[in-house]
């Protein structure tokens, strides 16, 4: 039996009829077809390497004799070279993580970092950087706040000094734009010539991909969505002879979805880049298969996790055999990523001050008690409704209670997928809600104003977290009335793009806030808009939580804004919580603490499933069951 290769077509000539029915069934499963009246089987494959490996392994296991054509022999020789090269890279990564490496080479690298990197890197950052430098392509799964950006910039500078790269291309969410520019200057000591390939006039933006001959920037930043829209232009950019690109996929969990459009757009670039890395503190947000795309991108021809292994992992996950999965992943990809754990950072443990439990003021207590009572009466009638409606109603009712402990006027706003008149529009209570702004200030707000005054007297910067837009605006307006200079970051605050020049952006507000002498010492933000990619820890050590949601992921990321590498080694982070007595506030914080403790137990383990986006609709429904069960 002869195996031949012609123009990416694998041909099996079975004129000697060595393949039985089972063998034929197997190769057809792999996509081979049999032309009519012919003894050959043919497969046109984009990636012939993986198919060849499967085919030859199968024939050898089944003891089927075969002969390779000269073209096949040449291809197999090249394939074996690739396998040998990749195995040597894996060995290099494995031995380095085991503490076995060329000490002189490491000292040379460390010396370069000390002499040429403006920022003094921590020991764990230098170790992570050397791992990425050794492999050329790599993944950094270090915990949030560990300084992954500085690690990549240090490796970029070393490769640039060796004339291996000259351009840094970042793909990530819009919230990473400002931090990358800031970190570039802080880490490398120079202001980058940068271009943002996102937003603005589409025609003008697309011209930037072709302007390399005129003036190449050193730093390019784009979003996943723009990459999807500009794929052809990006390939032109990457293939330009003057461009030696180091490609970074930031917050890489955004490309986890198998077959997703963003993932396809990123994977499409893999073949055109020699040096690349992926960054995420949450490599396995929902499933073990979330990690597949990351390594397919880093090593597109080497198949660190081949198709049969992927199927095996998914089957084991269905059986919940996590022990077997971890063993497989350690063998397949363990050497190819680096992870700094929370305990490695050397940060001072933060102080979680006991919640300040307050008594509601007259009218807000009147409204809260009325709604609580109404919900308890509703709970007795729920069994008469269908389960889907009950789930929506219960979620909506919990949100109404959360609004009560945040700002009563929020009760007049609509909630998606929730239509229930929890307060009669013609009642006295409805008029109180409508006129609430003229009747009293919430007790939380009164206490907050005094607390802010104390921090201002101590010349301390503070970040105030709240979850509802109406509450954020209430706090902002009241602080302004009291003469405090503050600014607000929430969903309406634009992300910086080339088309936005005059409007104040999140990045500009953040930069003003962290500047010690700017005069802006109060930042008001909601976790949904400000919990990812924004660092406040160098000048801000106090965070006040005006209210909380059940979203543990956003809560944990908000904690990390003031507790990170580069400040928290010497300055202690402080967290303060405002609560109303005998309300839903107590259930929320207890639930968050329970989930946070669980997260802290698994976050330092390489292959545990954990998500920084732990919010699911079930959180409100579960809270309803706890609070209103019969």
Could you characterize what this model shows?
The protein has 630 residues and is α/β, with parallel strands linked by helices. The protein folds into four domains: 2-79, no CATH class; 102-344, Rossmann fold; 351-355 and 443-628, Rossmann fold (3-Layer(aba) Sandwich), CATH 3.40.50; 357-439, no CATH class. The strands form three sheets. It has a seven-stranded parallel sheet, with helices on both faces. Strands 12, 13, 14, 15, 16, 17 and 18 form a seven-stranded parallel sheet that branches. The chain has a four-stranded mixed sheet with strand order 3-2-1-4. Strand 17, helix 22 and strand 18 form a beta-alpha-beta unit. The longest helix has 28 residues, at 70-97. The radius of gyration is 29 Å and the shape is globular. It starts with a strand and ends with a helix.
**Rg for CA atoms:** 29 Å
- CATH H-level name of the largest domain... which superfamily? Tandem AAA-ATPase domain
Average pLDDT number: 87
Strand order of the largest sheet: 7-8-6-9-10-5-11
Number of helices, where a helix is a run of at least 4 consecutive DSSP H or I residues: 24
Low-confidence stretches: 498-503, 611-617
CATH level 1 class label of the largest domain: Alpha Beta
CATH architecture of the largest domain: 3-Layer(aba) Sandwich
- Cα shape: globular
Secondary structure: number of strands: 18
**Would you tell me the structural class of the helices and strands?**
alpha/beta
| Helical proportion, percent range | 40-55%
Largest sheet: 7 strands, parallel
In the CATH scheme, what's the topology name of the largest domain? Rossmann fold
- The fraction of residues assigned to DSSP E strands is 5-15%
Report the end-to-end length measured between terminal Cα atoms.
74 Å
């Amino acid at each position: 039996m002869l195996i031949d290769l012609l123009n990416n077509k694998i041909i099996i000539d079975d004129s000697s009829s060595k393949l039985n029915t089972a063998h034929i069934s197997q190769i057809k499963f792999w996509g081979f077809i049999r032309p009519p009246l012919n003894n050959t089987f043919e497969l046109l494959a984009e990636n012939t390497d993986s198919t060849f490996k499967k085919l030859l392994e199968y024939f050898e296991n089944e003891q089927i004799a075969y002969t390779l054509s000269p073209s096949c022999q040449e291809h197999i020789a090249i394939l074996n070279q690739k396998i040998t090269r990749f195995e040597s890279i894996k060995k290099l990564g494995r031995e380095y993580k085991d503490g076995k490496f060329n000490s002189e080479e490491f000292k040379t690298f460390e010396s370069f970092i000390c002499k040429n990197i403006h920022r003094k890197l921590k020991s764990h950052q230098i170790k992570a950087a050397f791992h990425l430098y050794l492999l050329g392509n790599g993944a950094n799964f270090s915990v949030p706040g560990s300084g992954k950006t500085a690690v990549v910039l240090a490796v970029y500078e070393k490769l640039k000094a060796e004339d291996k790269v000259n351009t840094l291309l970042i793909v990530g969410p819009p919230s990473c734009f400002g931090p990358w520019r800031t970190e570039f200057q802080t880490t490398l000591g120079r202001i980058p010539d940068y271009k943002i390939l996102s937003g603005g006039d589409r025609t003008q933006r697309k011209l930037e991909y072709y302007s390399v001959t005129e003036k190449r920037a050193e730093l390019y930043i784009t979003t996943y969505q723009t990459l999807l829209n500009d794929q052809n232009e990006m390939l032109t950019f990457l293939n330009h002879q003057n461009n030696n690109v180091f490609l970074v996929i930031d917050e890489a969990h955004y490309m986890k979805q198998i077959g997703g459009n963003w993932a396809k757009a990123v994977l499409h670039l893999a073949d055109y880049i020699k040096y690349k890395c992926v960054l995420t503190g949450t490599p396995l947000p929902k499933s073990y298969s979330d990690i597949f795309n990351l390594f397919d991108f880093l090593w597109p021809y080497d198949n660190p996790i081949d198709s049969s292994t992927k199927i095996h992992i998914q089957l084991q996950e269905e059986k919940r055999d996590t022990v077997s999965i971890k063993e497989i992943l350690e063998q397949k990809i363990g050497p190819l990523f680096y992870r700094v754990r929370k305990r490695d950072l050397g940060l001072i443990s933060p102080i979680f001050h006991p919640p300040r439990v307050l008594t509601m003021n007259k009218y807000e207590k009147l409204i809260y008690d009325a709604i609580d009572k109404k919900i308890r009466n509703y709970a007795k009638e729920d069994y008469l409704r269908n389960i889907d409606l009950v789930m929506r109603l219960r979620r909506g009712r919990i949100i109404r209670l959360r609004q009560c402990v945040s700002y009563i006027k929020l009760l007049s706003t609509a909630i998606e997928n929730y239509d229930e008149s929890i307060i009669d529009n013609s009642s006295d209570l409805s008029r109180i809600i409508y006129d609430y702004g003229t009747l009293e200030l919430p007790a939380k707000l009164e206490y907050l104003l005094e607390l802010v005054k104390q921090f201002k007297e101590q010349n301390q910067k503070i970040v105030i977290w709240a979850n509802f837009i109406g509450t954020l605006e209430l706090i902002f307006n009241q602080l302004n009335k009291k003469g405090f200079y503050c600014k607000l970051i929430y969903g309406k605050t634009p992300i910086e793009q080339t088309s936005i020049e005059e409007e104040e952006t999140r990045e500009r507000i953040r930069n003003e806030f962290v500047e010690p002498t700017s005069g802006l010492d109060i930042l008001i933000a909601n976790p949904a808009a400000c919990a990812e990619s924004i660092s406040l820890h160098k000048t801000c050590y106090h965070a006040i939580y005006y209210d909380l949601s059940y979203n543990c992921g956003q809560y944990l990321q908000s904690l990390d804004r003031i507790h990170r590498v580069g400040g928290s080694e010497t300055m202690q982070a402080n967290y303060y919580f405002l609560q109303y007595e005998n309300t839903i506030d107590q259930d929320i914080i207890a639930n968050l603490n329970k989930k946070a403790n669980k997260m802290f137990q698994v976050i330092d383990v390489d292959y545990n499933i954990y998500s920084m986006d732990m919010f699911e609709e079930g959180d409100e429904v579960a809270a309803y069951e706890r609070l209103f069960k019969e």
